[in-house]
Amino acid sequence: MSGNMNLTLKVWRQENASDKGGFVTYKAENISPDMSFLEMLDVVNESLIKKGTDPIHFDHDCREGICGMCSLYINGRPHGPKRAITTCQLHMRSFTDGETITIEPWRATAFPVIKDLAVDRSAFDRIQQAGGYVSVNTGGVPDANEIAIPKVIADEAFNSATCIQCGACVAACKNASAMLFVSAKVSQLALLPQGQPERYRRVQSMVAQMDAEGFGGCTNTGACEIECPKEISMTNINRMRRDFFTAKLFKEEEI
Amino acid sequence: MILDSKIPEGPLAEKWSKHKFNLKLVNPANKRKYTVIVIGSGLAGASAAASLAELGYNVKVFCFQDSPRRAHSIAAQGGINAAKNYRNDGDSVYRLFYDTIKGGDYRAREANVHRLAEESVNIIDQCVAQGVPFAREYGGLLDNRSFGGSQVSRTFYARGQTGQQLLLGAYSALNRQIHEGKVKMYNRHEMLDVVVVDGKAQGVVTRDLISGKLETHAGHAVLLASGGYGNVFYLSTNAMGSNTTAIWRAHKRGAFFGNPCYTQIHPTCIPVSGDHQSKLTLMSESLRNDGRVWVPKTQAMAEQIRKGQLKASDVKEDDRDYFLERKYPSFGNLVPRDVASRNAKEAVDDGRGVGGSGKAVYLDFSDAINRLGKNAIQAKYGNLFDMYYQITDENPYELPMRIYPAVHYTMGGLWVDYNLQTTVPGLYALGECNFSDHGANRLGASALMQGLADGYFVIPYTLGDYLANIGPKPIDTSHPAFAETQKAVEDRLNKLLSLKGTKTVDEYHRELGNIMWEYCGMARNEAGLIKAKGLIQELKADFWKNAIVLGKNEELNMSLEKAGRVADFIELGELMVDDALNRKESCGGHFREESQTDEGEALRDDDNFAYVAAWEFTGENMPEQLNKEALVYENVKLTQRSYK
Ligand SMILES: Cc1cc2nc3c(=O)[nH]c(=O)nc-3n(C[C@H](O)[C@H](O)[C@H](O)COP(=O)(O)OP(=O)(O)OC[C@H]3O[C@@H](n4cnc5c(N)ncnc54)[C@H](O)[C@@H]3O)c2cc1C
Ligand code: SF4
Ligand code: FES
Q1: Whose CA is nearest to atom 3 of ligand 3?
Q2: What is the pTM of this model?
C-alpha cells in the first residue's frame, strides 16, 4: 500500500571518514503518511539498490525509541521537528507533500562520520568506562530491600536514567558539549545510595574523559534539553557541576 | 548421538547446589591464563562477560551495534520475575518453577527451570546493588506487579523500560571490567563463524563492520549470547538487526538446534499498516487487564468498517462479538498469549477483521473509561496510549485500539545441557539464543530473568568446570583450522558480493516472512508445511542467483551484512518447518490444526512428543538428523491446560 506524498531529499553522502562528502538530491515518491521516517528511507534505498546505487547508510536498530542507535539531523534539528521522540518514532505525516527535507549526520568533532549518516559515538562508551558504575562484583550483595530509597529520590534517579545515549544533545549544541548526557549518567548514581561511596571520584573521572574526547564546553544555551528525545533536564547539569566542584574543593583526600 | 543433558541426581531443590559443589574450580592464579570469547552484549552476554572478568578470566566481547548498550534487551518493557515473595502473597521458588513449567506447556526441563527460579531472587539483589532504579513504593521498598496472568505479584519493573535499566546495569559492570583491562570490547563486529579444533570450540572469525577486515580470535571457550531469531518472519517486535547468524553458523559446525519451531506470537501489537512496514510494535500485555477484545458479529458489518463506512463506536453492543469473553468465561480477556493470538486470527480468517487491511481486532477501553474515568486509565496506561496515538494517528481514548498478534520471541535455540554447553565442547549458549527454560511457550517477564540468571549466576560456575578440565594451556590462532575457517567465511562473502541479480535482499526477506507467517505461524498443518518447505527451497535457490548485493567488502556495507543474515534465515526457516512437521501435536506456541480438542484448543500428545527435538546438521542441502532428549517429569503432573 503506497501513499501519495512526493518529497525531495537532500541527503549527506560521504563514502568514509576521509572523504569530503556532500549533499545528493533524491526523490522519495509515493510515500504513505503512515510510514516512519526510517521506513521512508528504506523505500528510497530499495529503489537505489535496484538502480545499482549504494544505499544511504544510517544507524538504527530497535525502531521504537529506546536503543538510541538512530540519529539524523533533519531540517536542522536532531531527530527532526517533533519534541520528545527519536527519528525512528517520527512519521511522515509530520511533513507535507512536496516538501524538501535535508538530512545530515550528527556533527561534532567527537563524533566522526563513518559513512553517510552513520557516526562514531564510542566516545560516550569511553566516558562511562572511566567511572560510570558502582564497583560491585556479582554475588555477595545485600538483599534488594535492605536499603529503602524514598520514592521521590528513586523517581528522580529514574528520570536521569532514561537517557538513551543517542547524542542528540551534542548534535544540538553549538559547542558540541556532552554535558547533558554526562550529567544524566552522573546524576543517576549520585542520587542513589548505592552510588555514594564513589560519588566524587566518579564525577571527576567522567568529566576528565569527556574533556579528553574533545567535546566542547557548556554555555547554558539549553538547546540540548529542547532536543533531547527523553526530555532529560538541565537540572542534571547543575547537579553535576555542584558535585564536580565539591570534589575539587573538599574531597581530594577521598578521591 | 545420545544427548546427555547432564541433569544432576538428587531431589529437585538440591540439584543445583549439589552440582555447584561438584563442579571443578579453576585455581585463582590460573584464571588469567584463560581467554573466553563472548558473542553478544545483551543481558546474557554482558552479565556473563562482566562476571567472568571479575573472576579473573580475560574476556573478549563482540556486538554488531555501535555500543554494547544497544543490544536488543534494551527494548524489553514490562518487567522481570523473581520469587522474592515481598508481597507475602504466597509466592515461592517452587511456585515460580511450577508456573513456568506449566506455562511452557510441559515441554521444558524441570531441573533447569527450578534453577532459574532459585537464582531469580539473586538477580534483583544484584541489579539494585548496581544502581538499577526499579519502581518503588512510598515506603521506599521495591514495587511489584502481576504479569502474564500469574496469580501472584512477582514482577519487578522500571516504568515501561525494564530492559533498558537492567541492561544499563549489566553494561556498567561490563564497563568497569573494560576499564580494568579484563574485557576487550569489539563494537561493530559481527561473528561469522566458530573455529573448531579437535572437536572443541576454540575461537571465532569476525568481520569488522567498518573496515570489512576479517579477523580470527582464539579462546579457551566461546559463549554465544546472540539473542532470538524472530526476524525469520521479517516482521516481528525484534530490533531490525536481530538475527540468527551466530547460532546458525554454530549449528553448521556441530551444535544441535533445539525445538526450532517454538515461536511466541504476542497478541497485542500494533497491526501492519502497509507494505512498507519494517517492524511491529508491542503494546504491553497489561492492557488486557482493562481492554475488551471484540470484532463485529457479522462479516457484512466488518466490511463496512474496513471501507470506512461505519465507525467502531457506532457498532451497537448487540452487534459486537467479545469472542474471548464468550469462549472463555472464566479467564475472558486474560487468557494466555497463545490462546488470545489464535482467537484473533480465527476472527480475522472468518472475515470479521477490522481496520483498513482487515487484519486487526479491537481492544476497547470505553467500558473501563466509563467505569473508572479517563484519568484513571490515563494514569495506568498513559504512555502506551500516547505511543499508540503517535504510531497510528488515532486517539485510543475515543476509538478502540486496533491490535493484532505479532512474532515476539523464539523459545527454540541451540540445544544446551544443564551446564549451558552445546553439543560442541567449549561452545556455550546463553539467553534467548538457547532453547533451555521456556518449553513451548514463555511466560511474560521471564526472558530477562533467564538471560541474567544464565550470565550472572550459572555460567561462572559451569564454565569453570570445563576450563579446569582442559587446563590453562596457551592457545593462539596458529592452528590451520583458523585459516581454513576464515577462508570459508571469505569465500561466502565473495559469493554474496558476486550476486548482481534483480531482487533486493529485503524482497527475499519479506517473501520468506510471508511463507513463514502463512504456513509456520499461529496455526500449522501438514499440507501447508510441506508446501512451505518447497517454497523455501525455491526461494533459497533463487536468492543465490538473483539477489542484488552491492558494494565491496572493505567498507561499511549494510547490503552485505543483511544479505548474509537473510541467507541464514532462509536455511533456518526450512529447519523450523521440518520441526513443525515432525511435531504432530499442539503445545504452547506450536498449534497443529490436526491436534486439537473438540473445543478447538491445543491438544498435546505426551505419549509421543514429551521430548526435545534436537536437530543435527549433516551437510549442505542434506536432510537434518533428528535427535531426541526425553523429558522426564518427577515433580509435576502433566495436565491439559484449560481456560474455560
Ligand atoms: C519489544 C520486546 C519487549 C520485551 N519485553 C520483555 C519483558 O518485559 N520481559 C521479559 O522478560 N522479556 C521481554 N522481552 C524478551 C527479552 O527482551 C529478550 O528475550 C532478551 O532481552 C534477550 O536477551 P539476550 O541477551 O539473549 O539477547 P539480545 O539482547 O538480543 O542481545 C544479542 C546480542 O548479540 C549480539 N549479536 C548477535 N549476533 C551477533 C553476531 N553474529 N556477531 C556479533 N554479535 C552478535 C548483538 O549485537 C547483541 O549485543 C521483550 C522482547 C521484545 C522484542
Ligand atoms: S541526554 Fe538526551 S539527547 Fe543526550 S544522549 Fe541522553 S537521551 Fe540523547
Ligand atoms: S532505532 Fe532505536 S532509538 Fe531509534
Answers
A1: A65
A2: 0.98
